[in-house]
Specification:
The chain is α/β, with parallel strands linked by helices and about 300 residues long. The chain is built from 16 helices and seven strands. The protein folds into four domains: about 100 residues, Alpha-Beta Complex (Conserved hypothetical protein from pyrococcus furiosus pfu- 392566-001, ParB domain), CATH 3.90.1530.10; about 40 residues; about 80 residues, no CATH class; about 35 residues. The protein is about 65% helix and about 10% strand. It has a five-stranded mixed β-sheet with strand order 3-7-5-6-4.
Length: about 300
């Protein structure tokens, strides 16, 4: 018998081939931790039983123990100890979440399992909270965390190719504070995933990608990670415009350059027809035309002097 969280479960041994791994994508992969488990299992085999849903038809759906399972496959182990957390998935998932304080599920893993209860099994926030003996806010926070992850980001994070910590404490910050588009987050994650970068390196690159110059962003997009990290860490990039006024001016110039390319095409669009739009647009254009000669002169003077 195995006692987990004060409850006793009967341990039995089954063949690995009977295990259904449909929930593997809801658990984080950690290569370093997996190496430790593999080393331990070489000497002592599978010591801790895997936790499953035991269906009436005999199927065993794995909920906890994916690292041990992958290590068993590497070692050629064909039979593993298991315990059943229940006969249906919602009950078993709820039981695993209640045991999460002792099992050490991360907030992302908790979020994925709560999302499974909500989206797949149709359980509302209040019901999940009641059955977990948690507050509705606890459930809502976890649904919010997983809801903000795009499929691209979730696959990279849960697959162990992008640091979960970097997502929670770096990318989420950029998304919420700077209103970064999810497509830009996806692009960044694709570029830096699977390169073995530290959380600090990812933080530095994110600063450069989302808040740095167009040159820095372009270098990261091209995959020049080492060069970019060196520029940011040594201050080489910052030395080119090392105060707020300079960096702000560059951002404004980049914005003007983008607008010059977009506005002529937008003004020709057939989708512009409302009276209120024309009223406001004409006032804005009038103001721009009144300043454009001065603006153009300032640009030309700076360019002729410094170019």
């Amino acid at each position: 018998m195995d006692k987990t969280g004060g409850r006793s479960f009967k341990i039995k041994e089954i063949e690995i081939s009977r295990l259904d791994t449909r929930h593997e994508g809801n658990r984080l992969k950690d290569r370093n931790r997996e190496k430790e488990i593999l080393s331990s299992m070489i000497e002592g085999g599978v010591k801790e039983p895997l936790q499953c849903v035991e269906k009436p038809d005999g199927r065993m759906i794995l909920l906890d123990g994916f690292k041990r399972l992958r290590c068993s496959l590497k070692l050629g182990i064909k039979v593993v100890p298991v315990i059943s957390l229940g006969g249906d998935e919602p009950t078993a998932i709820l039981r695993l979440l209640r045991l999460s304080n002792t099992k050490g599920l991360s907030i992302l893993e908790q979020s994925a399992l709560v999302d499974e209860l909500n989206k797949v099994h149709g359980m509302g926030v209040s019901e999940i909270a009641r059955r977990l003996e948690r507050s509705p806010a606890w459930v809502s926070v976890r649904l919010g965390v997983i809801g903000e992850m795009s499929p691209v980001v979730k696959k990279a994070v849960f697959g162990g190719r992008f640091s979960a910590r970097s997502y929670l404490y770096t990318l989420q910050h950029f998304t919420r504070v700077n209103k970064i588009k999810k497509t830009d987050i996806d692009t960044f994650v694709k570029i830096v995933s699977g390169k073995g970068l530290s959380t600090r390196s990812i933080e530095v690159l994110a600063e450069g990608f989302f808040k740095g110059s167009e040159n820095l962003k372009e270098q990261i997009l091209r995959g020049n990670i080492d060069w970019t990290l060196n520029q940011l860490r040594t201050g080489t990039e910052r030395n080119n415009y090392n105060n707020k006024q300079e960096s702000g001016t560059l951002r404004d110039l980049e914005s003007v350059q983008r607008c010059i390319g977009k506005i002529p095409y937008k003004l020709k669009s057939s989708g512009l027809f409302s009276p209120s739009f024309f009223t406001e647009a004409l006032l804005l254009i009038e103001g721009i035309l009144g300043r454009i000669d001065t603006f153009k002169g300032a640009l030309k003077e700076f360019y002729d002097k410094r170019g």
